[in-house]
Amino acid sequence: MKRFAVYFILFLIGVSCLVSISGCGEQEKTQNEFAVGNWMQFRNRAYILLVTNPKGEWNSSVRIADATSKIVKSKGNAKGTWHIEKGQMIFTVTESDIEEIWEKNSTSFFDIVELTETIMQLKNESGRIIVWKQTKTKKAAESEVDLSPIVPMGPIAVNLNKNRSNDKDRYLCLNMNLVLKELMPDQQIPPLHPKAREAAIIFLSSLVFNDVKDFNKIKKQSAKLVDVLNPYMEGFIKEVAIEHVIVAAEIDKVEEFIIEHTMIEEPAPGEGEEGEEKSK
């Protein structure tokens, strides 16, 4: 009897181990998990972007390319809720200004033909198959596609021009970034031409104190700077964003500005105290 009890206990232990091992295996992704992400389709020279999140919300926008397929203009946006039920992906539209694609206050039913990490094929109610392709990877919680990159220019200091020879010296110091126009999904950022910085310096040094004496005038000059720099960035610059600017009368202030806004490289891990001291 005791021997039977021991065998029975060993049998139960073995069964529990098998259950735990099988439970630790990798679980296949569900259709809901595959559907979450940033999707894109190309139709009649227009990019339709769709972003779905795990909360069951989605938003969509349309980007129109010009003849060169470089510059993108936004046509409109829409948003709503989504869910999957009985092999269908169901979209409800709550807001839309692109009703030719997403009709406001409508509900659309799509049969799921194929749904993987990279492609989503949906058949609409008229039998047409719509193919969505996954774009660049983003966190699931994100709800917008960032297509407007920023290129840092770094600090620039120039000696302002003078109306009269006896005017005192003044220096324009600014730290700025180039905000680019929207790019196509997965399109590469164009490289900054080596002469772009030189062109900016020539333009800024041609200004006089009266051109930059207040914020509104500086903003006006930054708009002109877009036209100066765009030939060096293939026309991609949308605006010049100025983070910090001063007009100084002493060269010491200029040096302080440059030091403050120049990135200093951190010492590599393992350099020790000597590397840390050099960095300081």
Largest sheet geometry: 8 strands, antiparallel, barrel
Q: How many individual helices?
A: 6
Mean pLDDT score: 78
Return Rg in Å.
29 Å
How far is the N terminus from the C terminus?
79 Å
Helix content: 25-40%
Number of strands: 11
Order of helices and strands: HHEEEEEEEEEEHHEHH
As for the number of domains, it is: 2
The shape is: elongated
Residue stretches low in confidence (pLDDT < 50, at least 5 long) are: 19-24, 137-146, 263-280
Side by side, the strands of the main sheet go 1-2-3-4-5-6-7-8
Overall structural class, as computed from helix and strand content, comes to alpha+beta
Sheet-strand content, in percent, reads: 35-45%
Provide tags for this entry.
2 domains, 280 residues, eight-stranded antiparallel β-barrel, disordered C terminus, three-stranded antiparallel sheet, alpha+beta, Lipocalin
